Amino acid sequence: MSRRAELAAGLAAVRERVAGACAEAGRDVDEVTLVVVTKFFPASDVCLLADLGVTDVGENRHQEAQAKAEECADLGLRWHFIGGLQSNKAAAVAAYSSVVESVDRAKLVGPLARGAAGREQPMDVLLQVSLDPPGREGRAGVDPDDLGALASRVEQEQDLRLRGLMAVAPLGEDPATAFARLAEVRAAFVAEHPAATWLSAGMSGDLEHAVRLGATHVRIGSAVLGSRPTGK
Ligand SMILES: *Cc1c(COP(=O)(O)O)cnc(C)c1O
Fold it and tell me: Sites of the modification N6-(pyridoxal phosphate)lysine (predicted)?
């Protein structure tokens, strides 16, 4: 099978899963954007995906993302940065990203705004919220109690547009439970920030749970592209 055919098959399977989850949840399939996570895979795959109708791609490491965004600049893709951010790289990340999903502390906001300055459209920002129990050494993300202050900081920047929340289900917990908690956090957040309705949640292993609990964006890597070369 050609690489194109492999990717087409992966995409078709994922789109079918998203459609099935939407149908079950009584949601319109257009409410869920598929972000294909291309980390560790070559720019040639990104080209094939664009040709297969993918509009949104996700990357989690700055150098790799920057190189691919440059190589694929003519494809009209929206690049989502979904990885851990260093403040000294944030401005550079903003230069090629349409969406930065992993904003989890105030220190990133100034550099992101600087990097996004001068565009026609502000850069879309999601706040990454931690779903780990308090005190647990876990994945990145802001504590739900601190979301309000971080949101206010983003809203001070005219080159940034606060769009909503992003989360990763913690390892070792049923994603249904974690995403149910996320749905509560999100409801409270949207009550305070009515325009920030995006919710990026759901990966290859748990997208159905995320769609059921209101995700507007799912970030899918291995189910489309296959296992990552390094197993990361
Ligand atoms: C790698 C990654 C994904 C995609 O994971 P898969 O399990 O391959 O679908 C989604 N979100 C984040 C934040 C990631 O780093």
Answer: 39
In this structure, the residues whose C-beta lies within 6 A of any atom of ligand 1 are 37, 39, 60, 82, 168, 203-205, 219-223
DSSP summary character for residue 75: G
- Confidence grade of residue 207 (pLDDT, cut at 50, 70, 90): very high
pLDDT at position 229 is: 75
Q: What is the mean pLDDT of the chain?
A: 95
* Residues 94-120: tens digit of each pLDDT: 999 999 999 999 999 999 999 999 998
Residue 1 above 90 pLDDT?
no
Strands 198-200 and 160-166: parallel
Do 91 and 114 contact (CB within 8 A), yes or no?
Answer: yes
61-88 pLDDT per residue, tens: 999 999 999 999 999 999 999 999 999 9
CA–CA gap between residue 199 and residue 168 (Å, rounded): 11
- 203 alpha carbon to ligand 1 midpoint, in Å? 6
Q: Which atom of ligand 1 is the closest one to the Cα of 102?
A: 13
Atom of ligand 1 nearest to the CA of 220: 9
In the chain, the amino acid numbered 64 is E
Give the domain ranges of the chain.
Answer: 3-225
Q: How far is the CA of 135 from the centre of ligand 1 (A)?
A: 24
Q: Which ligand 1 atom is at minimum distance from the Cα of 222?
A: 8
State the number of CA atoms in the 13 A half-sphere of 151 facing the CB. Answer: 23
